[in-house]
Amino acid sequence: MFKIAVIGTGYVGLTTGIGLANFGCSILCMDIQEDKISNLNKGIMPFYEPGMEEALKVNMACNRLNFSTKIAEGIEWAEVVFIAVGTPQGIKGKADLSAVMNVAELIGKSLNGYKIIVTKSTVPVGTNEKIKEVISSFNTKKHDFDIVSNPEFLREGRALYDFYHPDRVVVGTDNPRPVETIRRIYRPLYLNEIPFVFTDIRTSELIKYSCNSFLAMKVAFINEISRLCDAVGADVSKIAYAMGKDGRIGGKFLHPGPGFGGSCFPKDTEAMKMFAEEVNVDVSIINAIIQSNNTQKEYMVEKIKKRFARLKGIQLGILGLAFKSETDDIRESPAVFVVKRLIEEGAVLRVYDPQATENAKLVLGEKVFYAINEYDAIINADGLVILTEWNQFRNLDLLKIASLMRGKMFFDYRNIYDMAEVENSSLIYEGIGR
Ligand code: UDX
N or C: which end of the chain has fewer CB within 10 A? Predict the structure, then answer.
């Protein structure tokens, strides 16, 4: 049973820790935040993620999963150390690597024998070499260690499922020594014939950015087509369907919406732009993705504005604040962007999200009214705006909505409704590109 330390208890770290505990490894998850660790020790999750709290409790009960803030001691205990701390957007869009480098320093100081250091955090090309340098410079007793780049591709809201059913596992190394151990750690996936991509460290780092940028590009592309559809009177749903049937394109990630958000796509496209600039490579597609996504977010506000003579005093019911469904994460949420812009324009907002309200309160404060459910949000509203595709928003009682609202506008910015059905309830439907 491998002794594995995971540093960082965010989405990536906790999913890795719980997932590997389920594979039978002995896991110590660590974080500098005392309250987070103390809650985890009581079985309380720091964020909402379907199925995760149950898995947490099961593995804790079997004593395969433990939590601590004593990071140096944890490193000394472990044979393999996963780095899963955040790499948020820093100055000018560059990835902020300070947390990663602090961990590298601590690893260097705490080495007490050969260890494998696995980087799960998304880091720009060349970072793992810097991690190696930092560890070496604090490794005064000259213990052997190896660095492995092993990027994580999980989706929030399906994190554990994605950990057990990845499309592929990418492993970047600059020497063969750690490969067998990594294979053995991921043995259950190996047995399930999940494809493994063994490569060098730089290629592995760039695989992660290439995947996220490509997916962001698909979303930005279909959103751009939706704007064209609005202008020329075509139907983006049919276009996306027909495009998706082309095996070379594929149907996934072609759903129009208010723009992509979350903790990965916005930050990774920005970071890719920055490190491409540093090596003097023109990445005009990456630049266009970022710009096009910003246009889409603002376009949502423009579309609402067009329907009212002025937004000042207009009351809107907002359904959804999370950047997508099945998460309470509002980082870079296009919904929050739209809400902030509507407030600037003088609109009066009643907002509702099934999971993200507490997080939203931290950024929106008293500027909006927090409704207790979707119907409470639209009482007396001039319009309703769907910004996150939660399942519970897919089957609203349209007649009840029409009777509770004072106006008629139904802005479906996730295109989850049938236009005719909405209009049968004497509401005026407006989707994106339909
Ligand atoms: C993403 C990647 O999928 C994952 O591989 C990576 O490692 C981390 O980032 P996640 O952040 O959970 O995962 O979000 P995802 O479900 O992929 O969606 C990203 C954004 O694109 C969301 O804002 C979502 O609403 C939007 N989106 C996605 C669309 O607007 N249309 C689509 O068709 C798909």
Answer: N
Q: Are residues 186 and 295 in the same domain?
A: no
Residue where a domain terminates, one of 168, 199, 230: 199
CA of 356 to the centre of ligand 1 (A): 17
pLDDT single digits (tens) 211-249: 999 999 999 999 999 999 999 999 999 999 999 999 999
Give the pLDDT confidence of 265-299 residue by residue, as tens digits: 999 999 999 999 999 999 999 999 999 999 999 99
Ligand 1 atom with minimal separation from the 153 CA: 7
Which domain-ending residue is among 155, 181, 199? 199
The reply to whether ligand 1 has any atom less than 6 angstroms from the CB of 261 is yes
Q: Measured between alpha carbons, how far is 69 from 131 in angstroms, rounded to an integer?
A: 21
Say how far residue 22 (Cα) sits from the centre of its chain: 23
Counting atoms of ligand 1 from 1, which one is nearest the CA of 122?
A: 7
| In a shared domain, residues 192 and 278 | no
Tell the burial category of 391 from Cβ atoms under 10 Å away from its Cβ (0-12, 13-18, 19+): exposed
- Report residue 366 as tokens: 């008293």
Does residue 237 belong to any structural domain of this protein?
no
CA 153–ligand 1 middle distance (angstroms): 10
Residues 269, 178 share a domain:
no
pLDDT < 70 stretches in the chain? none
Instruction: Give the position of tokens 């309703």.
Output: 384
pLDDT at site 93: 84
Task: State which residues form the domain around 350.
Answer: 265-430
**HEC profile for 386-416?**
ECCCCHHHCCCCHHHHHHHCCCCEEEECCCC
Q: Could you tell me where the beta strands, DSSP code E, fall in 52-209?
A: 65-68, 80-83, 115-119, 145-149, 169-173, 196-199
Nearest CA to ligand 1 atom 9: 264
Residue 289 inside a domain? The answer is yes
Q: Which of 167, 135, 134 is nearest to 151 (CA)?
A: 167
Same domain, 399 and 275: yes
Task: Tell me if the pTM is above 0.85.
Answer: yes
What is the best residue among 120, 217, 263, 264 to mutate for testing ligand 1's pocket, by most ligand atoms within 8 Å of CB?
Answer: 264
Is 25 considered catalytic here?
no
Determine if ligand 1 sits within 6 Å of the CB of residue 155.
yes
- Please count the structural domains in the chain: 2
Does 350 map to a domain?
yes
The CATH number linked to 373 is 3.40.50.720
169 and 277 together in one domain:
no
Residue 119 within any structural domain of the chain = yes
Q: Which of 119, 224, 324, 338 to mutate to test the pocket of ligand 1 (most atoms within 8 A of CB)?
A: 324
